[in-house]
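To whoever is on call:

I kicked off a structure prediction for a single chain this morning and the downstream step that reads the tokens threw a length-mismatch warning. I double-checked the sequence; it's 252 residues and nothing unusual in it as far as I can see. Pasting both halves so you can look.
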Amino acid sequence: MELLKVKNIKKVYHPRLSQHPVEALKNIEFTVDAGEYIAVMGESGSGKSTLLNILATLDKPSTGTILLKQQELSTIAEGKMAQFRREHLGFVFQDFNLLDTFNVQDNILLPLVLSRVPLKEMIQRLEPLANQLSISSLLKQFPYEISGGQKQRVAVARALITDPDIVLADEPTGALDSKSAQQLLQLFDQINDKGQTILLVTHSVLAASHAKRVLFIKDGKIFHQLYRGEREQLTFMDEIAQTVSVLLKEEV
């Protein structure tokens, strides 16, 4: 079932100190089915972060349409946008974006508090999620008291607590050591296996190899895409690496 449809998206910036507009995205089109796990790859400046910001409703396209569950995002009133994000989108960032003045539990529950969900329901949602992510023992600690890998698990819990339609992850392994990164990617595999739709933006070939489809962006356009199919992860990783190599050679 089609969950997200991106059609003819363009993004043009008009820098104040330049008379020349910058076209960050050019006719981007793709769809995401419910339950898919997609990675978006590209060099710095390719447009992948711009695309993520537009999908996250943190920026608006210059032209084109984005539909999530048949709802066109451009029709959402500005005053309703924050509520829409809380109810439909989950976010996982490279730098975690946790509040040091809140303990782990309060960080996770914050989106539900803002949506005025009853406390009893919040706890009912929290307990199984904390167990699944192995953070139950951390709930009363503060972000500055736990490791980077644990912080990212907390951030994932905060993203999932609202039961979002899609999780948008921006370089989620970028600030983690190799062991913590691998644990996070295995966690993403597990939540995707349970039906959670994930769209991941990454530079990491390893991270991308956990996805079921990889979109490659170059100069604001979708250059290529790969489907994992029945291939083993290592085989898929080699194919992704070869495609990245081709992208880099064409830039030289």
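Update from on-call: the warning came from a stale cache, not from the record. Cleared it. Sanity check on the structure: Helices lie at 48-55, 81-88, 104-114, 119-132, 148-160, 178-193, 205-208, 233-251.
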